[in-house]
Amino acid sequence: MTILKKQNKHTHTDAGLPRDGALSRDSVKMAAGQQWVLVEMVQAFYEAPAYHLILEVFGDSTVLFFYRPPSHRIIVNGKECINFASFNFLGLLDSERVKLKALSSLKKYGVGTCGPRGFYGTFDVHLELEERLAKFMRTEEAIIYSYGFATIASAIPAYSKRGDIVFVDEAACFSIQKGLQASRSFVKYFKHNDMEDLERLLKEQEIEDQKNPRKAKVIRRFIVVEGLYINTADLCPLPELVKLKYKYKVRIFLEESMSFGVLGEHGRGVTEHFGVNIDDIDLISANMENALASIGGFCCGRSFVIDHQRLSGQGYCFSASLPPMLASAAIEALNIMEEDPGVFRVLRDKCKHVHKALQGTPGLKVAGEPLAPALHLQLENSTGSRTNDLKLLRAIVDYSLERRIALTLARYLDKEERFLPPPSIRVVVTVEQTQEEIEKAAQCIREAAVKILK
Predict the structure, then answer these.
(1) pLDDT in tens, 55-106
(2) What's this model's pTM, rounded to 2 decimal places?
(3) What is the dihedral of CA 327, 329, 331, 333, to 10 degrees?
(4) In the chain, which stretches have pLDDT less than 50?
(5) Which of 42, 130, 273, 373 suits a disulfide with 263, CB 3.0-4.6 Å?
(6) Spatial contact of 377 and 232, defined as CB atoms under 8 Å apart
(7) Where are the alpha helices (DSSP H) in 160-252?
(8) Which Gene3D superfamilies match (predicted)?
(9) Nearest-5° angle of CA 205, CA 206, CA 212?
(10) How much is the CA Rg of the chain, to the nearest whole Å?
(11) What are the structural domains of the chain?
């Protein structure tokens, strides 16, 4: 696969983009007289073996190769399958507008930035993307990171330090756990989505503070939750959390990677879904790798909160900045989201459809909120062995793959997870999946369950 080739100085090239939007070889050539020519860079990037998807989706023992971008149909080992595995919620990976915008940016800026944001790594498209995200979320300011996982993992230790206290839902994702670990703060876990248990911990801390008011004045207190939990597909009770915030004087950090671009009339997440004033949330973070079909993540909130990360967010200060072409792609994805807010309702309707279609599958139970775009199928009755449970679920995934339905096992770092979720098959919903494809997948899973779990 050719990515770069030598350009003959006397060869005439057409530097313009094709009118029909096709990403042809000619469409990515540089102007005549330049020494090097980029050839199908975007396609080459997408056609590279998706090792991360191999590891997460199908485990360590099976090697699969992908020959097409992870759109709603994907070619796995030469076989075209309906994709229920990739987090391409709004189908924007398939958007010609997004591809052409990324291609145009690639020709203008090159592949990377070769520096962190504070060291010659800030491009105009970074500033534009931050401005657009802040405007979209209706906050004062936004900051972008070059890697989605590093976003909340950098934001937490930027504010919470040794001696501070963080109240965290026990189902919090791994990136939150790493952020807590880096903060060296005192962490108190409450039962998943249990507001009574959270208030119990807050009351205990209030009593402890009364014993030493002087010390209490310098201790910062945070609540860290997810909007839609990736490990459970449950929706956080945000209105109740806001009440506890003001009652016990704590700050709320909200991780919205699974709810941004999904919930709310305009896709702004759980604050819009519940009608909560976004100013009641101290920090919102999300990655751009699900709804926006790009790479990286962002935080948004009040200016003084966001500005602090520009000198204290480790992933911002010490990592090369987001490649400009990916920033441009995210901007174009935002344009599409703003132009067609009806797409969020379509996605939520399909989430409900998938959730309903999978109900009653023999031997399996559907875990998660019906509005979640990535739900979990768990064994109704565990074998008592995690290894054996995983083997049964993997057999269902393999059975489905043979019948051209691509599913994924939820994968975890078993020895490092604070609270290890039960084994499950993760079923991902996108706007591109048709009713017929959803019914076909549900029927295939039912057949597999009857055959394997009998």
Answers:
(1) 444 444 455 666 667 778 888 878 899 999 989 999 998 899 999 999 999 9
(2) 0.83
(3) -140
(4) 1-61
(5) 273
(6) no
(7) 174-183, 195-211, 213-216, 238-248
(8) Aspartate Aminotransferase, domain 1, Type I PLP-dependent aspartate aminotransferase-like (Major domain)
(9) 90
(10) 23
(11) 4-47 (no CATH), 51-83+341-452 (3.90.1150.10), 105-339 (3.40.640.10)
